[in-house]
């Protein structure tokens, strides 16, 4: 149940991130700033549901990595948008963001709670 809320919060956050990104790109600052603030609120839901998921299973190295990557992903989204706004976005920032978010989602989906992917 809680994992569904975690996933819902992640989908909301990533959708808002996409919207904010396209609005900043189009130069529509006002709606972009508003949705950016909303995205920060949705970060809190991701964080809260993520933290609540921790005691549901015994702690492991992969789960520890998942927590760290989750927090880093949100930080990277903020860093990315900040550089985009300043106009000094580098390929390194973009690639790191994509790598970190993909790793977080993949590790999350290989861990046993909720939707559980397994290839063996
Ligand atoms: C944008 C950031 C994040 C993304 C993209 C993300 C992604 C995911 C995904 C896809 C799952 C699998 C859910 C399922 O199978 O139903 C998951 C599970 C989980 N996430 Fe996150 N997450 C993020 C942030 C966080 C944060 C900040 C925390 C904790 C502080 C956290 C803790 C957890 C835990 C404990 C699980 C359950 C793992 C298990 O099955 O043992 N996540 N996450």
Number of strands: 0
Rg result: 15 Å
Catalogue the unreliable spans.
Answer: none
Q: Which range does the strand content fall in?
A: under 5%
What is the global morphology?
globular
* Largest sheet, strands/sense/barrel: none
Number of DSSP helices?
A: 4
Order of helices and strands: HHHH
Mean pLDDT: 96
End-to-end span in angstroms? 25 Å
Kindly name the structural category.
mainly alpha
| Number of domain modules | 1
Q: What ligand molecules are bound, each kind once?
A: protoporphyrin IX containing FE
Short description:
Pfam families: DUF1516 (PF07457). The protein has 120 residues and is mostly helical.
Can you describe this structure?
With 120 residues, the chain is mainly α. It has one domain. The protein is 80% helix and 0% strand. α1 runs antiparallel to α2, α2 runs antiparallel to α3 and α3 runs antiparallel to α4. It is globular. The relative contact order is 0.14. It binds protoporphyrin IX containing FE. Protoporphyrin IX containing FE binds next to α1, α2, α3 and α4. The site of protoporphyrin IX containing FE has 29 residues, from α1, α2, α3 and α4.
Keywords:
globular, binds protoporphyrin IX containing FE, 120 residues, 80% helix, mainly alpha
Please give the structural blueprint.
Layout: H1 2-26, H2 29-53, H3 61-86, H4 91-110
Helix pairs in contact: 1-2, 1-3, 2-3, 3-4
The protein binds protoporphyrin IX containing FE (HEM).
């Amino acid at each position: 149940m809680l994992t569904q809320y975690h996933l819902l919060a992640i989908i909301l956050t990533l959708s808002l991130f996409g919207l904010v990104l396209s609005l900043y790109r189009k130069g529509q600052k006002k709606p972009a700033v508003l949705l950016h603030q909303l995205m920060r609120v949705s970060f809190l839901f991701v964080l809260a549901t993520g933290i609540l998921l921790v005691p549901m299973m015994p702690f492991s190295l992969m789960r520890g990595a998942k927590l760290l990557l989750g927090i880093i992903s949100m930080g990277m989204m903020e860093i990315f948008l900040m550089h985009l706004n300043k106009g000094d976005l580098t390929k390194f920032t973009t690639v790191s963001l994509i790598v970190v978010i993909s790793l977080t989602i993949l590790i999350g989906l290989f861990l046993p709670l909720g939707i559980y992917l397994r290839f063996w």
